[in-house]
Amino acid sequence: MDVDTVIVAIGHSPNPIIERTTEGLETTKWGTVVTRDESGKTSLQGVYAGGDIVTGEATVISAMGAGKKAARAIHKYLIGQQEQKS
Questions:
Q1: What is the value of pTM for the model shown?
Q2: What is the domain count for the chain?
Q3: Residues 6+ positions from 19 with CB-CB distance below 8 Å
Q4: What percent of the chain is modeled with pLDDT above 70?
Q5: Is the distance from CB of 42 to CB of 28 less than 8 angstroms?
Q6: Going by C-beta distance under 8 Å and a sequence separation of 6 or more, which residues neighbour residue 50?
Q7: Is 31 among the domain residues?
Q8: How far apart are CA 21 and CA 84, in angstroms?
Q9: Strand partners of residue 41
């Protein structure tokens, strides 16, 4: 499968590097990412999050559901960006 980007999503707790190296990304005291709504939109424009990085350790089913919602929101965001350039 040809891809442009692969996001590795393994582990049991948020990687502290994310919080330290991503300026403007709002996180909780536990290092999870704060989202604005169910779409997974974060405090950074064009950045979405879902699953354990938002909720903390949970089920795979929950993470998959969050991933689907974020994917829809990312698609909508990218289409909007494309339309603005036209």
A1: 0.75
A2: 1
A3: 25, 27, 31
A4: 97
A5: no
A6: 35, 40, 63, 66, 67, 69, 70
A7: yes
A8: 29
A9: 48
